[in-house]
Amino acid sequence: xxxxxxxxxxxxxxxxxxxxxxxxxxxxxxxxxxxxxxxxxxxxxxxxxxxxxxxxxxxxxxxxxxxxxxxxxxxxxxxxxxxxxxxxxxxxxxxxxxxxxxxxxxxxxxxxxxxxxxxxxxxxxxxxxxxxxxxxxxxxxxxxxxxxxxxxxxxxxxxxxxxxxxxxxxxxxxxxxxxxxxxxxxxxxxxxxxxxxxxxxxxxxxxxxxxxxxxxxxxxxxxxxxxxxxxxxxxx
Length: 236
Prior knowledge:
The protein contains ten helices and three strands. It is mainly alpha-helical. Helix 5 runs antiparallel to helix 6 and helix 9 runs antiparallel to helix 10.
């Protein structure tokens, strides 16, 4: 794989986006070592904006910086998934509690539009990355409608990890996105009148995804390979 040189504008943001896309797509394997020298050369950028971008990706949890060892792509363990699942479930349940009485015709139409966009992309089956974006957009609906600023900030902060998770989830099911009907009950409950039923379905919906993805990690796991023991990745 070869990275194209970046333009001058918004250099740091471009670096963040480019590296994030590589990581969450699985193009750079989990646990692989990256070096500033190689990244700077391949992307045609100076070390200063690259270091800023790396700090942001370390802060978001997609990269791991180990003293005296180097920089590594984040690995996801079953425990990592369990923590992400529990946090995500708690946040989304809170979002629904806050947005429940704010649902009007415009909000429900927006929910339907997001669902339709996701279904159309899944039916085409030619853009897994876009399917992930639209699945996140569907789940973002309750957060945005809630109007809760800190809740939305927490949701945005875990986005990169969720993108990584959804990529693993797609691998677990050997398909380029969720099933066409994967969110029909979710949307129907979100449009309904029973908040308790919505929260119960939310718990089940996320738990099933967690179990399938954790099984994939268990199958792929090699206890002899951890971050810091891999070789330097050539991402050209």
